[in-house]
Amino acid sequence: MAESESGTIVNSWNEWDPLKHVIVGVATDCHIPPPEPALDAKVPEDSDMRGQWGKRPQDTIDRGNELLDNFADLLRKRGIRVDRPTPVDFSKPVTTPDFHTDSQFGCMPPRDVLLTVGNEMLEATMSYRCRWFEYLCYRPLLQLYFEEDPNFRHEAAPKPRLTDSDYRADYLSEKIGVQQRLKWAEEKFFVTTEEEPLFDAADVLRFGRDLVVQHGFTTNLKGIEWLRRHFTDHRVHAVNFPGDPYPIHIDATFTPIRPGLILNNPQRRLPEAQRTMFEKNGWEIVDAAQPSHNSPPPLCYSSTWLSMNVLVLDPKTVCVEKSEVWQAEQLDKLGQEVIPVDLRDAYAFGGGLHCCTADVYREGTLEDYFPNQ
What is the pTM of this model? Predict the structure, then answer.
């Protein structure tokens, strides 16, 4: 099945088949949101964002958009169709019968919100109050796909209430300390409770018939169970990474490159008990190269391990942030063609090359990469 020049076909089963159509986010009007339970737990205690909120400096927004536009152009030159979201006014508050927050976030990382599985695009619940309405930025595109592709399924997971019952008060202290956070992560004691299903799309990796989902700050066990009941033709596997004191989103921790090969963050190794599925089916899990930077950019939520947040264009080709020379060198030695992309100055708006994209169409069909289970 090939996508036509004018129309849309939604189809993507994994993270590595040849990419032909993608959404790339924008930095326009991005805000640092006000304090809220899920967000506060994520922000490191020594972060320069503690106590700050409001619209990000316009010069940084302009620079972020310049880099994202250049990335979109690079993909287009390789024959990939690129669509962009329509930002809403992120300065507006979010008010529901259950909560109020004074501003929103942005729409640079579509991977957080949209999960494409086959011909379906699913809007995630999201677990931050400031991101409640973020799906609106993608609705014009999803409406277009619905009109152009008669087989496209547009789904939305049930919106959570996000009351205080969804969050553990233990995480509200600013002085928890990394050691306590690591202990809690090992015990699977996260800021999100099991009050209702919660998941971000960026906690899900697609391996054909199998979906691998991280249990952490942004996705709870009820969220994973919801995905299991929703994708009834798939096997859904919960994973966790005890070495991560801020476990949000799997794509700076566990990164499939091609069938049989995965990069794993050496500080957040997949536990032995959870490696069985991969080992039984001949998959190699290798430690990712060290990041090239000792700290994230200014006003950035993410860790230095965005170095391994790469975008695979096909099983032999991968985009890597251009300053992450050690990650590029490792992938080159592993037999990949590496395309350097300047994106570091856009990290602060929501992540790296994988985060700022969402698949619409990859060539290929549904396959079983783990027949021995």
Answer: 0.94
